[in-house]
Amino acid sequence: MNSHRAELGVGVVGVVGQNGRPAGAGGVDVVAGGPAAKAGVSVGEVVTSVDNTPVRSTADLSRVLAATNPGRSAPLTVVNPQGRTTAVTVTLGRLPGS
Hints:
The protein has 2 helices and 8 strands. It has about 100 residues and is mainly beta. It has one domain (about 1-95): Roll (Pdz3 Domain), CATH 2.30.42. The protein has helices at about 35-40, 60-65; strands spanning about 1-5, 10-15, 20-30, 45-50, 55, 75-80, 85-90, 95. Strands 2, 3, 4, 5, 6 and 7 form a 6-stranded antiparallel sheet that branches. The N and C termini lie close together (about 5 Å).
């Protein structure tokens, strides 16, 4: 079964900023050979936008991916552990069905 949902190939947790507000989806696992890995995303980086849509939580990330077609190239913004922001282009994968 195919879910027809886009996926990044990243296991994430919610990240809270210094102000105590949600700040993004932090990558705790990057699937080798997956869309995020191919785009250069590393463990420890925080996803802050996908397809020019802000990501402040894991729920935001899920909503953006659910509304985006697999196979599509999309801009992805991440912040590394040192605070450097990087923009890359990721070709979204297809979330396997259950």
